Amino acid sequence: MVKRLATDHEIVAPTTKVINHKSKIVKRVSKTHAAHIINSVDDYKHLYISVQPLDIFCFGTGSMCELGLGPLAKNKEVKRPRLNPFLPVDSAKIISFAVGGMHTIALDSNQDLWSWGCNDVGALGRDTSGAKEVLKDMDAKDNESDDDDDGDLNELESTPTKLDRSLFPPLAEGHKVVQLVATDNLSCILFSNGDVYAWGTFRCNEGILGFYQDKIKIQTTPWKVPSFSKYQIVQMAGGKDHVLFLDEEGMVFAWGNGQQHQLGRKVMERFRLKTLDPRPFGLKRIKYIASGENHCFAIKKDGSMVSWGLNQFGQCGISKDVEDGALVEKPTTVKIDSSLKVKMIQAGEHHSLILTQEGDLYSFGRLDMFEVGIASDNLPEENTYKDEHNKARSIPIPTLLSNVPKFKTIAAGSHHSLAVAINGICYSWGFGETYAVGLGPAGEDVEIPTRIKNTATQDENIVLVGCGGQFSVSGGVKLSDEDAEKRADEMDD
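Above: the chain sequence. Below: its structure as C-alpha cells.
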C-alpha cells in the first residue's frame, strides 16, 4: 500500500507498521502478533524516499571530494547550492541519498546505487585506485594567487558513479532499497526483505577499529551482514562510527564503536572487537531510532523518548547540568512532552533537533557555533547552561524554536543544520566557515534559521536534505511556472 504526501515522498506501510518504507515488507508475522504491533505504533510515519526524481544540489567545502562536482580544483569550495551536473534529473533520477562525514551514497529510481566522496577506507563501495592524479602546475600564471596547492581532485572519488548492481542480490530477487545510511567511514543499505548490506569500516579513538568481528578490518565492496535478529530489520540510524538497527518486534541493535556509550552499554577496552557485529542491548518496544555522531535516541511505542551516549553539551536532552566528557551510560528518558508526535530526529556532534508531525522544531545542545538555531538574545534563561565565566554554552533541554516557519524535514551536520519549510524553501544555521550553510561568501556562523536564497534553488521544492562534516546536499523538484510565481508572491508578502 503506497500513500502520497504533498508529492514529496513515497511512504509504504510495512505489515507491522513499525515504520514506513517505500517497498512492501515481504516477511509476514502472525495476525495476532501484527495486531499487537499495529496498535502500539498507530499512525507513525517516517520519510526517506522521494516520489519524483530530484535535482541534486551540493555546497560547502569538498577538499576530500565530498561535493561530487568533479575533479577540478575550483569545485573544492562551493558557497551556495550548485546543481550537480553528473546527476541530471532526467537520466540519473536520484530519489534518495544519505550523507556521511565525507561521502554520500544515493539511490535512483531504477534501484541503482551511486557514491562519491572520500574513499580512504572503502566507504564508496567501489575501486577508485586507478584515478589519474592531476597535480597543480606551480609555474602556471593562473595559479599565482591561488593558495590551494593540492591541485585537482581524484576523478573517480569526486564524480558520482554507480555501484556494480550484481553486488546486491536482493535487487535481482525483486526487492527494493528502503533506506540508506552513511557514517564517517561506512555505508549501509536496507532492503525491503530486511537484508542489510554494508561496506567501509569503523574508527575509534586509537584509529581503525574494524568492520566485522575479527574477520574483516576494512570491507571495500558491498557485503551482506549476517542475520542478527529473528525478526525483520525495518529501520537504521547511523552515527559517526556506529549504526543502530530496529527490528519489527521493536528491539534495537547496535554495531560499531562504543567508546562514548553510543551502543547503549558499557564496553570494556579488552572487549572492543565484541562490538563489531550488531547486538541487542536490552532496549525493547521501540518504534523509531535516530543518532547523532556519538549519542542516540529512541521513541518507545508509548510515545516516550530515551537517549544515551555523549552528553557534555546536553545533546542527549537529559539534564540541565552538563560537563566535559559527560556520558549517559544507558537509555534514559528525555525531558520532553510525551504527547508530542515526533516526525523525525536529527543530530550532529553536540546538538540535536526534533521535528514534530505539526512542523514544529525543537533544538538542544551546544551554543558556541549557534548549533541550536536560537538567537543569543532569546535564550531560555531557566534552561541555558553557563560556564564559570557566565558565558552561555548550551541548552540541555529541548526548546521550541520561535519565529520560524513550519518545517517538513530536517538534517544535522557536525555543527550546522538544514530545515525545509512546508513550501519547499530550505533554511540553514550554525557553523559557517566551510560554507556548508550555503549562504554565500561571508563564511560566518549563522545564529538562526536563515533562508538559502540563490538562483539555482529559488524555483525548487526542496524535498530531501543531508549534512556532512563540512558540506551539505539537498534534493528538489522543479516548480511549475505558476507555482514558482505563487511562492514568490507569498514570500514578498
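Confidence is low (pLDDT under 50) at residues 1-7, 10-46, 143-149.
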